[in-house]
Every structure is written in C-alpha cells, then in structure tokens.
Amino acid sequence: GESVGLHLPTLSVQEGDNSIINCAYSNSASDYFIWYKQESGKGPQFIIDIRSNMDKRQGQRVTVLLNKTVKHLSLQIAATQPGDSAVYFCAEGDRISNFGNEKLTFGTGTRLTIIP
Amino acid sequence: EAQVTQNPRYLITVTGKKLTVTCSQNMNHEYMSWYRQDPGLGLRQIYYSMNVEVTDKGDVPEGYKVSRKEKRNFPLILESPSPNQTSLYFCASSLGFTRAEKLFFGSGTQLSVL
After folding, report:
1. Residue B56: closest C-alpha in chain A
2. Distance from B43 to chain A by nearest Cα, in Å?
3. Do residues B109 and B11 make contact, with C-beta atoms less than 8 angstroms apart?
4. In sequence order, what are the beta bridge partners of A14?
C-alpha cells in the first residue's frame, strides 16, 4: 500500500467491485488524517477525514479505517464506478504550534483505475 | 460557486524572469496555502497564511515569496525563477485558520522554467 513518502503507482479494480487503498504513516503524533482524490487535470478534492480518537468513519460509498497500533490508514470505496478513476492521496496532520495550526504531510498517491 | 481560482493555468518562462501566480478564493476562508506537486514527491507546502498579513514558511519556501494583503487573495511570487521550480503548483484554502483540514484546491498552474 501507499506510504507517506513512498509511491504505489496503480491499483486496478473491476467496475462494481470494492476498492481498498492503503496508506502507512510514520508519525505517531499525527492526530488527523485525510483522503483526497485528484482527477486528471484537476486539483485534489476532499473525500473524507478522521481524527485519531476514532478508528472508522463512513461517508457516501467511502469508509476510512484507522489503525493506530500499526500506523495504517485505508480508504474503502464501495461499488466502484468509472468516475472513481483518479489518484488518491492520504495526508496526516500534526499540530505544530500552540495556536493549533496543523501541518499536513501528503503521501505520493495511488492511481486507481476502474476497469469497465 | 465556491472555488479557488488560480491564474494562469499554464506558464512557460525563462530563468530569472520574475513572475506571479495569482490565487483567489470566494469562500471567506481564513487559511490559504501554496503547494507544489512533483512526481514521486507528492504535495509539498511552500508557504501558508492563517490570516491577512500573517504568512509563514512551509517545507520548501526557498525561491518563493507570498503576500496576504486581502483575505481573498494569496499570490505566489517567483522573483528569479530557476529550472528546479518547474512544477505543478496548487493554491488551497480552508475555513479554519488553525487547521489545514478540508482544503479546497485550485485547478493548478503548470509552470515550466527554461
């Protein structure tokens, strides 16, 4: 799976199947995690986020799972559609100051290709 | 429509010729930021701003300047561009000034420095 700082180029999934994109993070102090989707020629688009006090969060057709023990994050996309083809980035957030502003560290992305 | 607008979309320039990439958001967001995206390196933060007249360096600020004179605008300035600044640039904004969460990104500016 993807690791923040390492690159997993592609994942191909049959249309209608479920997709799982993985992400490993290294900073045990990170308390916020977020997934973005980037379609060709566009900027990243927010999908879903999760705080470290949770281990699962669901959105519309997407679920994010957080395993703090092994520092692993995953994005599950149910019943994939052609429009899900994109690059998916995970990012981890860590407070860097007393003001609470957060530094986000992005992974290099996983390219998801949906096979018709 | 809520959006972050960057201009230009594509830019080819030569080494040393000053340029500015504009960024504007219409969501009254406090937080704005610039990132560059390079193959194999992901998104790296250049500068960010938590409010008007408040800016700070990100991970890769060398060779860049920013300003935040108005809440909606956050231009990125390259005083003397060099070929290693050839990259895809994204401006982003967020409602919360304390957190870079749920960033809204612009469509990107592809810069080539010859």
Report:
1. A101
2. 6
3. yes
4. A115
